[in-house]
Structure formats: structure tokens, C-alpha cells
Amino acid sequence: MTRGRAEVGVFGGSGFYEFLDDVTRVPMHTPYGAPSAPAAVGSGEGTSVAFIPRHGDHHELPPHRLNYRANVWAMRELGVRRIIGPCAAGSLQPHVHPGELVLCDQLVDRTWGRDDTFFDGGVVGHVSFADPYCGELRAVLAEAAAEVGVTAHPSGTVLVVQGPRFSTRAESAWFRSAGWDVVNMTQYPEAFLARELGICYSGVALVTDYDTGLEGMPGVEPVTMEAVFEMLARNVERSRALLMAAIPRIPADPSCSCGSALSSGPHGT
After folding, report:
1. CA angle 227-229-234, nearest 5°?
2. 90 or 222, which is more confident
3. Quick one: average pLDDT of 151-174?
4. How are beta strands 8-12 and 152-153 bridged, if at all?
5. Which regions of the chain does DSSP assign to beta strands (E)?
6. Which residues pair with 53 in a beta bridge?
7. I need a labelling partner for 23 at 20 to 30 A (CA). Which of 144, 219, 223, 266 fits?
8. Among residues 105, 109, 181, 209, which one is catalytic?
9. Can you tell me the mean pLDDT for 94-101?
10. How far apart (Å, rounded) are the C-alpha atoms in residues 162 and 66?
């Protein structure tokens, strides 16, 4: 493994990169400023991996203040071609239980004011985002989840809200009635920026609790912060196991269309 270079990137919370060997911290600066923290570059099951904690080393950055462009650009500078994005999420549906994972295939963006494109002046680019997540990478994660015994829904729609506040009951009822599966605060624009750079991206929603409004349905109890923190800790272990099983399975050369997304739409409008 070349120092400061990686094939696979992971965004996540603290503790995710403890499965890596021979870790080197790589301070970085991009045209968009510094990423959330220095990249931790190491080896995972023989594959070079770069990890950046999206909320900072001490979880000091709220979701609406993340420098998403710097984080994704830093991965590109490290040579990353595939990104896995584990993220905490609340369930919008009774059949999606806390402790389970959702391998997202669609997202709905309800954020605002975030710097969400690299094409913001000088050059115009229109990137296809009809299918926001890499199907090839999602299939690898599904196989890995089955191997390690983690319950992972093979598809699902994540609703991305601005944060840091949670949903009102009325909002949650609306989201649920639309058929969306989980709610999160960071998948957009992280996934889209990766697509603009031609990097495969797969979002892995780690379900910590049920969103408000599901209380009283069969099997759904009112959520407590203690239960959420306990589930967060358990999900870190699940996601580590998933990553260790998935990373060696990722093909060296992508066969998907993520890398050609920039050429799939009209330009110069």
C-alpha cells in the first residue's frame, strides 16, 4: 500500500477505522477547505482504505455545518474510487427495526443552503442522479451482510432532512405515508458529490430507533436516549463486521456506470 493512497473510502463515526491495520493520519487541505478531520489511511483485509469521520474526531460538527465538498474531494485526492457511507438513521416504517441496516437505493433531499455541487461557477455540468447509489457496491454489501449474519434490507429510500432538529409528528406521518423507509441528516449532498466526481457511493443506514409517531404500533415502544445510545454502540460493531467482510469483495475495476455519470446528461445549458 502506498502511503497516503487508498482504493476504498469510508465516511462514518469515531471507532469505524479501528479495524484497519498500519494506520497513518494524513492531514489534508482541498480547494474547498479542510475536511472534517485528517484521513486515517490503512489496510483492511489487504485493501487500502481511507477513513474520514464526517462529524470530526470528537463529533463536534453538526450535519448542516459539514464541509461535504472538502470531505469528498479529499477522498478523490487519496485515489479513492469507491466510498461506503454508514450513517445513523431513524426508521419510518414498522417493519424496519432498530439494529437493522438499510442498503439504500434511493434518497429524497429536503435539505437547504448546503454547498452541494462542484459545478458552481466557470464550468457547467449536469450529472445524472436518477439512481443515486451504486448498485454494484450495494450488492457486495448485501452479500457481506448475509455472511456475517447482519439483518440488512437490500434496498430502501432514505429521506434526508436538514437537522439538527428531528421531525414533528405531522412531518413523520407525511414521510411514512410517502413510503420512505428511513430518515437521516447527512446522505445529501455526500452521495451526490461523489457522483459528480465519478466515485461509486453506497449509503448504509444504521437504524437506531423509530421516528416519532410510530409509538403504540405493534412492537413499537416509545424511544429513550439511553436506548438510542445503546443501539448506536451495537451498530458500530455491526458496521465494522460488515465492512471487514465487504471490502475484500469489492472488485478492483468497477463495472457500474457511476464513473460516466457526467457524460450521461446535457451540458452547456
Report:
1. 95
2. 90
3. 95
4. unpaired
5. 8-12, 21-26, 39-44, 47-53, 82-91, 101-103, 106-110, 152-153, 157-161, 182-184, 200-210
6. 12
7. 144
8. 209
9. 92
10. 11
- Tell me if residue 120 is catalytic: no
User: What's the whole-number mean pLDDT along residues 199-220?
Assistant: 84
DSSP string, 108-144: EEE--S----S-SBSB------SS-S-HHHHHHHHHH
Model confidence pLDDT, tens digit, residues 23-64: 899 999 999 999 999 999 998 878 999 999 999 988 899 999
pLDDT at 224: 60
The reply to whether the predicted model has a pTM over 0.70 is: yes
CATH of 8-263, one of 2.40.10.10, 3.40.50.1580, 3.40.50.2300, 3.40.190.10: 3.40.50.1580
Residue 169 Cα to chain centre, angstroms: 25
- Give yes or no for residue 3 having a pLDDT over 80: no
pLDDT of residue 43: 87
181 catalytic? Reply is no
Q: Kindly name the residue from 22, 109, 211, 253 that is annotated as catalytic.
A: 211
3-class secondary-structure state, position 75: helix
Strand 200-210 and strand 82-91: the pairing is: parallel
Per-residue pLDDT, averaged over 220-244, amounts to 74
SS3 5: coil
CA distance 111 to 120: 18
Q: At what angle do helices 187-196 and 68-77 cross, to 10 degrees?
A: 40
Q: Are 223 and 112 in contact (CB under 8 A)?
A: no
Grid cell at residue 245: 467482510
Q: Cα–Cα distance between 95 and 115 in angstroms, integer?
A: 34
Q: Which residues contact 229 (CB under 8 A, 6 or more apart)?
A: none
